[in-house]
From TrEMBL:
Belongs to the cytochrome P450 family. SUPFAM superfamilies: Cytochrome P450. This is Probable cytochrome P450 4d14 isoform X1. Pfam families: p450. Its cofactor is heme. Signal peptide: none annotated. The gene is LOC108569952.
Amino acid sequence: MWQYAVVILLVFLVLCYKRYNFLKLFEKIDGPKAYPIVGNALLFKNPSKNIAIFNEFPAKYGKTAKIFTGMRLSLLTTDVKLLEVVMNSPNLINKSDDYILIFNRWLGDGLLISSGDKWRAHRKILTPAFHYKILEDFIEVFESRGKFLVDNLLKASREDCVNVHTIFSLYTLDVICDTAMGTSVNAQCNPDHKYMEAIKTMLDIAVARIMNPIYRNEWAYKFTNIYKTEMKALETITSFSLGIIEKRRKFLESRHSVDENECDEFGKRRKMTFMDILLKSTINGKPLTNEEIRQEVDTFLFEGHDTTSAAISFTCYNLSKNPEVQKLAYEEICHVLPTDRAVTIEDLQNLKYLEMVIKESLRLYPSVAFHARVVDKEFDYNGTKIPKDIMIAINQYTLHRDPVEFPDPEKFDPLRFTAEKQSKRHPLAYIPFSAGHRNCIGQKFAMLELKSAIAKVIKNFELLPVPGYSPQLISKVTLTSDNGICVKLKPRSA
């Protein structure tokens, strides 16, 4: 028994020595007081307060602060000069251990958390999935699914307070399943879809694991009840995805064709889905396995519906609070979008003011409030040596509120995103889709979907604020609100 005690003591002493070295190495960088073993865990024990706490960091500690997760040190930054290094360096493409901790069993080596040669190979395969020609095909999906969205919003408009985030989440799940998997799940007609519930469970568990030191330890975590809950949710997610992948694989094999211009039985050109590209791709002459495809598909199902639904919801909330902006957006939509034919990709691209509205909403409420990189190779920054394996976290929520780059930062002003004003800002002062080597591969897809959905909402409803309501922000991997994202919907007269 005493042998185990000696081992534990030695491990503890090694960690203490590392902590001491970190404190010496980063003595020029300020940060909140950290305690042995727990680090800054006590400061961040309430996830609903973390956004506000981190937002105060630049004023208290400077643009780059040091924080301890247990005994491990990380840097949290809003410094655009440091971001130039982080975003543009080929030695800083690896995501943090937190991503692996919370996503490994779910997303495996999918594009979100993979690194090195595997990430580069998969990124190369997936880039054509967002070619203009393929995106053009998806507009029809946005439109058809948007009709169900309007119907659901109309039913909800009888209430004085509507949590639109719930409704938009179902819409974006329908869209991403149709476009990425070529399969309809009809989530808007089935709000209790098991896949949807499993995703919510996984996100709740992700927050718990990041914040709780016991849950962060893989050995201890496996003895907890939430581990059992995760396994059950994961079984739902993987069986759903693998079933569709196998079905799609057999369908493609039965066609004996790789012609992307092939037509269906109605004479329409078949849409090339994200999954089709994966199923037809090879790496070093070998096709991807079902499990590799599942990891990529699940990555896109998660990222393509959760982040987008948050962005639509917060944009609608901002429009409800700014009627003069909503009026200008409504007038543009009525002027640009056709009434005598189907909406095209060019129509959506011509919604210039609405695009500025969306960008300003993503400035105030970025879908991902924090993201991080791990240093692969030591480098110097401002006289401080940044060693290998240190995590550098980007506080995107606060970065977008820098009063130097964005005067009167809490004001909602879409005109910040005119071409002239954008050219005067540092290019990394605004990064809602990240930047550099690991920027969001689906950002063009996302912007088209956002425009399509929000245009439909504004065209059919006047968005009004709910008296006394304000969102209680919380970062559950994506930025959301503990009390929903709520507006009042007033149907426009025909």
